[in-house]
Amino acid sequence: MSGSLQSFFAMGGYAAYVWPAYGVFFVVLLIDWLAPQFRRRRTLRELRGRMARQNTRRERTNRNSATSA
What we know:
Blueprint lengths: L1 H9 L4 H54 L1
């Protein structure tokens, strides 16, 4: 049993190429899974900032128009 397991991990002499390829694949898969979540957070943060600036401008405009009237 251990001989077959050892030969599996040796990958017929190509283990130095196969295992790093698996590693790169899973790293890319993880990044591909996480990227949209980080992008969504960044977009929501930007939108909240825009909305806050817009509300501040509106309040300032309403305050200025109320004092000048």
